[in-house]
Amino acid sequence: MTAALARTVLDAAQWQARRRAHEQRVDVWLTPHLTRRRRGERHPVADFLFTYYSHRPAQLRRWHPGPGVELRDADPAEFGRDYHAGTAGVTLDTDGVRARRGESIAWIRSLLTATRGRAPHFGCFGMHEWAMVYRQTREELRHNAWPLRLSTERTAAVVEERGVRCSHFDAFRFFTAPARPLNVLSPTRETQHAHEQPGCLHANMDLYKWAYKLSPLVPSELVADAFDLARDIRTLDMRASPYDLTALGYPPVRIETGEGRHEYVRAQRSFAERAIVLRTRLVAECDRLVSIS
Length: 293
Prior knowledge:
With 293 residues, the protein is mostly helical. 52% of the residues lie in helices and 4% in strands. The chain has helices at 12-39, 48-51, 57-61, 94-116, 127-131, 152-162, 169-172, 192-195, 201-205, 207-214, 220-239, 258-291, and strands spanning 8-10, 69-71, 83-85, 90-92. Helix 4 (94-116) runs antiparallel to helix 12 (258-291), helix 10 (207-214) runs parallel beside helix 12 (258-291) and helix 11 packs antiparallel against helix 12 (258-291).
């Protein structure tokens, strides 16, 4: 079933206010990162979303209203190649972008709905980060400028004692070779739809990826909301990791203890609840895109 694309008209004051609010919001995140980048400094927590994901800072900062929004007194050059000027204002060329993105929209929607329909699991305790350093030397560690909280031997023992229950391929692929057989699953890109589950920190962090891959077909406010969640998840991810980042202001979540595991699960459940809302919003945007005539 198809429907005509609904139109929303924003006058100059309205869309400029929305754009300004978006830019001010993301500048709080972008400015420290760009300052560090100019200085050649690295931050193992705060830089991750800018280095792991392909969305550049300038792309995150650029505001898009989403499809069906007409911007009065606007210049299409301000918004990019996918915008055109009509008799009343500037709008997104929704049909043109959909024509290029049709397969990816369907793939993203399928993954999001499959994940949403699955029961969440909260028993991994962040062991994926430990599996990424399992049996590595200090020189091999990704963040070797920072110490491990435990000795190499004790870190390996925690992995072996707790086991690894990771369902997310993009975490699993960074496991060390000796850690991979310790995982209860062997996720692949091809089995991603079958394994992704809504309690997973990385699946919920990836809502940011699916949001920006849909851009400019979704409002930038939604992309920023997903980025905000991903930032908070990354913080827990690294606090629960084997690295000691206390000097950076990140007290550890000691998942090697019962108390630490309870703390981890409480935060994980909270993130899953926030992710439900974002995942539903993204599915609704996909449904809207495939239904319009």
